[in-house]
Amino acid sequence: MKSRRRPYSEQRPIDVGGGVWSVPVPIPGNPLGYTLVYAIESPAGPVLVDAGWNHPEAWLALRDGLAAVGMDVREVRGVVVTHFHPDHAGLAGQVREESGAWVAMHEADAALVKLMWSFGEGAQRDLQADMLRRAGAAKVEVEEVTAERPRPPAPPDRTLHDGDLVDLPGRALRAIWTPGHTPGHICLHLEDTGRLFTGDHVLPAITPHIGLYPYDRSDVDPLSDFLDSLAKVADLGELEALPAHEWIFQDTAARATEIRTHHEEKLVRLTALLAEAGEPLTIWETAGRMSWNRPWEELPAMLRGMAAGEAAAHLRTLEVRGVIRRVPGVDPVHYALHS
């Protein structure tokens, strides 16, 4: 029987066995509801996998959730961040302030965090606005999407590389670089228990957001990276998955294969959409014609921006594969099928 995502109100900290505890931390105002933060015991103090959203309600949930399973946030040894997004890295800095813990993430995401802090808030908004304009968004849509931005997470103390062992005395927790959702996303293989903390890379029911930012970049291909990362995780075998959202599930490999199939089918549908259009489309026009979990017109501004990022990532993969081309010399950017 398939599990279902329970609302945050029904979530409780639980002992999932093998010296691992799950602590749900709310994401106020977000349909995901909560992040599952995991605490791994060690003789030198617990290490957290992710930390949750930077919000007073979330902080209380993390602090009190750890206390409910017999841990003191002031004794946390370290926080391993699966990726830099605010629902994962947001509270890492506050945990560090309380406990003196180290914070670690992959070097690629650490570089992005450093870059974000180098820009002032106004500069970040201007860059995003120009990206939206080049994608074909109307002025009012640009204003809506850029209205709110969370602060960047705290910079890490340590950077991780593919295959590194995390500083977790008495345990074997290995970083598996799985780029796609972010350039530096990592899964974490707890080798002494045969489990995989999957972050947002492999989730049991939903598929993680794969976006291209800026939308018109031509030097990266995050969707292809993601598909390769899914194959990499599948090669690890039938590990139990401890994801950052929804619920714990069996057989990471099978679910990774399902998600690969989902995106390949999405690429086929996108190719057909461009063929049916009969003319070049902007990224924004393409996103508006794709299928989402609700009609395009009903998506809030932030979600339209994310949908455009996902459309851009799929267009980029089709471009790399030689299925479509960018129309030269036009602004905003347009894509068309190769003739």
Automatic annotation (TrEMBL):
User: Which InterPro entries does the UniProt entry name for this protein?
Assistant: Metallo-B-lactamas (IPR001279), RibonucZ/Hydroxyglut_hydro (IPR036866), Sec-metab_biosynth-thioest (IPR050662), WH-like_DNA-bd_sf (IPR036388)
Does RNA-binding count among this protein's keywords?
Answer: no
The residues that cross the membrane are: none
Question: Taking every annotated instance into account, which residue ranges of this chain make up the domain Metallo-beta-lactamase?
Answer: 34-245
Pfam families in the record, alphabetically? Answer: Lactamase_B (PF00753)
The entry's keywords:
Hydrolase
Question: GO molecular function, one example?
Answer: hydrolase activity
Entry's CDD domains?
TTHA1429-like_MBL-fold
Segment Disordered: which positions?
A: 143-163
Tell me the domain of life: Bacteria
UniProt key word Hydrolase = yes
Q: What name does the UniProt record give this protein?
A: Hydrolase
Organism, scientific name: Streptosporangium minutum
